[in-house]
Write a structure and sequence with these properties.
heterodimer, A: about 280 residues, mainly alpha, MetI-like fold, 2 domains, about 75% helix, B: about 300 residues, Rossmann fold, six-stranded mixed sheet, four-stranded antiparallel sheet
Chain lengths: ~280, ~300
């Protein structure tokens, strides 16, 4: 009853009319309208320009796009890239979350680390490419490093913000109930900062996904980014377009996945307010 | 021997580029077991500062506070503290909130459930134990906050303006709920308030503090039968007596600073109301917008 979230359902049973169903998917519908208009515009523009190198025909790109999902070479490269992203993200997570919790909880740690962190994070991610190749050679090493590098800062910053956002009375309340420092970390700091940490994860994953494609342009001879460079070199613009659309879609799906995790882990935020009494 | 002894307590706030502000100076009184004591006074009289020190969240600059023979030095489960905004942990259910002190103490499940049952009974919260705080009305949140503080069977219950954020109509209703709850728990209470009516309705004894260094203007015992009748002559007499005393407490401040204090009182209330409304709105907004994004 509460889960459905509508106050109506507690009082009366309402049949869903087509209008209600439309209301539920209103956003999706608008998105589809805009996408359709853009695709039609593309179709006519491509027919008019008649230069497949600049703007490939819509039909051709669509064909490339759909066959790509069944192409072993493309799929295995996509899997490789995804593995790199998740590995890099994992490193960033393991370093970023504890560091963020420490810097959020301890003023001393914040003062000690934040100037260094705020300087290091100003270095553009692409500027790390030459150094990462020197350090790790070519292949997985530099890509994973670059992903971790671009993902760690949003994680640290959002974790700090999450800890700082905790009502000081929560600490006082916990202490007055006899909580020790480990209790406070487990029961107050982590759950209190969790919404912000999960936002940090979404941002970090987004940055990681963006930087992996860049890294693969340069530092490797395999992966999704490498396929794009290859398509460009072979003047297969239609395939390049298809791959770009795919990378956007994959990033979108990962983000959705994180949103679902966020809703599961912080379900207390999504309850309806003020039921009963 | 008295349960709680406040012995010559002073508190001074140092201020940057200003002379230090003396909040409390040499304050002393005792509270007997089972008494319901209100600290009444204008904003800025140091009553909340005193309560915070009783809670152990800050320490007196001079003097000491003794609870059941032990000096208060840090927060502990022998004192149940109810915060003005209740400070219920939003990520824990009602049950988890109430049992937190017992869970920290690693009491076994059976004893925890027994205690939970008792507490749900006195607070009439049966059926809500698996809800989250956001799902509760203000009155229910208050009851959760009080029984959470009572769970560890503290010697004393400390209430920091427990109804400060509640609108006028709700206030009297919640005062009745609070009175019944505290009576059922048979505990000693020290409550901070600036509402004269509330102090007369709830307390056995009202300590009126002045705005100047928290001096005790008067210590008034409320000799009225419970439950109290707000319409009775006796009740009204206490209210007018205490109202006059609070007014006097204001006046004890030097004349020049008086308008400033009146202004501050108004601002504080406005700030509280504003903050509460703002928090309510933002929490609703974020959950609503997240819900929409996720669909």
């Amino acid at each position: 009853m509460e889960r459905n979230g509508s106050t109506i359902s507690t009082n009366t049973i309402v049949k869903l009319t087509p209008g209600d169903i439309f209301d539920k998917y209103r956003g999706t519908f608008y998105t589809l309208v805009v996408v359709t208009i853009l695709l039609i515009a593309w179709y006519f523009a491509a027919n008019r320009i008649q230069n497949t190198l600049l703007l490939p025909y819509f039909q051709e790109t669509a064909r490339e796009f759909f066959t790509a999902w069944f192409d072993y070479r493309i799929m295995s490269n996509l899997a490789l890239t995804l593995r790199r992203v998740f590995t890099g993200f994992l490193y960033a997570f393991l370093i970023g979350i504890p560091l963020g919790l420490l810097m959020g909880y301890s003023q001393t740690a914040l003062q000690a680390f934040s100037p260094i962190m705020n300087s290091v994070r100003q270095v553009p991610i692409m500027a790390w490419v030459p150094l990462s190749i020197i350090w790790f050679g070519l292949g997985d090493g530099p890509t994973v490093f670059l992903i971790a590098m671009s993902a760690v800062f949003p994680l640290v910053i959002n974790t700090i913000a999450g800890v700082h956002g905790i009502d000081p009375n929560y600490y006082n309340a916990a202490r007055s109930m006899g909580a020790s420092l480990p209790n406070i970390i487990r029961d107050i700091v982590v759950p209190g900062a969790l919404p912000s940490i999960l936002t940090g994860c979404r941002l970090a994953m987004g940055f990681g996904w963006m930087s992996v494609i860049c890294a693969e342009f340069i530092a490797t001879s395999a992966g999704f980014g490498f396929l794009m460079v290859e398509a460009q070199v072979r003047l297969e613009t239609a395939q390049l377009y298809a791959l770009m659309v795919m990378s956007g879609l994959v990033g979108f799906v990962i983000d959705k996945g994180f949103l679902i995790i966020e809703k599961k882990l912080t379900s207390w935020r999504f309850k309806d307010g003020f039921v009963g009494s | 021997m008295a349960l709680l002894e406040v012995k010559g307590v002073s508190k001074i706030f140092t201020r940057r580029k200003k002379s230090p502000h003396i909040v409390l100076e040499n304050m002393s009184f005792t509270v007997e077991r089972g008494q319901y004591v209100s600290l009444l006074g204008p904003s800025g009289c140091g009553k909340t500062t005193l309560l915070t020190m009783m809670g152990g969240f800050s320490t007196p600059d001079a003097g000491e506070i003794i609870l059941a023979g032990n000096k208060v030095e840090k927060p502990g489960p022998d004192r149940g503290f109810v915060f003005q905004n209740y400070a219920l942990f939003p990520w824990m259910t009602v049950k988890e909130n109430i049992l937190y002190s017992l869970q920290v103490k690693k009491l076994n499940k059976q004893e925890q459930n027994k205690r939970l049952h008792e507490l749900l009974e006195i607070s009439h919260l049966f059926g809500s134990e698996n809800k989250y705080p956001v799902q509760l009305s203000g009155g229910m949140q208050q009851r959760v906050a009080v029984v959470r503080a009572l769970a560890s069977r503290p010697e004393i219950l400390l209430l920091d303006e427990p109804l400060g954020a509640v609108d006028f109509q709700m206030r009297e209703l919640l005062q009745e709920e609070l009175a019944a709850l505290v009576e059922g728990a048979k505990t000693t209470v020290v409550m901070v308030t600036h509402d004269v009516n509330e102090s007369v309705y709830l307390s056995d004894r009202v300590i009126v503090m002045s705005a100047d260094r928290g001096q005790i203007v008067k210590d008034v015992y409320i000799d009225l039968d419970r439950p109290r009748d707000r319409q009775s002559e006796g009740f009204k007499a206490y209210v007018s007596e205490l109202t006059e005393l609070v007014r006097q407490a204001f006046r004890e401040k030097t004349v020049e600073s008086q308008p400033g204090f009146v202004q501050k009182e108004v601002n504080d209330n406005m700030q509280t109301n504003f903050t509460n409304a703002y928090n309510r709105m933002t929490s609703r907004y974020t959950s609503a917008s997240h819900g929409r994004v996720a669909k």
